[in-house]
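Trying the structure run again after the queue cleared.
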Amino acid sequence: MITNFRNFILIDHPLIRRDMTVLRQVLTPPEIFREAVKRISHILAVEISKDLKTTEFEIETPLEITTGYKIIDEVVLVPVLRAGLGMVNGFLDIITDAKVGHIGLQRDEATLKPVEYYYKTPGNIDTAKVILVDPMLATGGSGTEALKFLKLRGAKNLIFACLVASPEGIKKIETNHPDVKIYGAAIDRELNNKGYILPGLGDAGDRTFGTL
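Done. Tokens:
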């Protein structure tokens, strides 16, 4: 699905399409589900890290002196508990010196609104590039609240990374946080009356951790 959303960046790649198929299939077991999430997270991390700043320094190869590079931007990954944890290792494989914080939000099944129950982030959140990771951008309620919590605690440079997004969720983030870019591996059709993405892949947390 191609859209004209202002801040949504769809990462379309043959390997992502293959692994999204694995994630969507109802009979995929948790261990295979986790590996597919990790592989997609690798690709998202590569795309998101394209803008990281580097500095040059001198290194020695076995043959001569040459120029090396190191990343000077600080990066903080913040998974939304618990489903977001499934994406963290994939990001850390690529952005190896990133720090990790956590936000715990649970959805009130009656109101579909998020309720915060845990928050902890590194002290450099005000100067770092902060990547909020959550597999599903459904209603956008949890993402909107998580971004708000991070901003209240000083975060200024924020990115949202997800596996699957709904049009409704994207619009909500764009409305409430127009400064935040959203990176995703797929845009699905719509939400159902319970706030789940269609066709979707079910509850990402339950499928990651085998708690169905």
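Residues 162 and 184 are 5 Å apart (CA to CA). Worth checking whether this holds up in the mutant runs.
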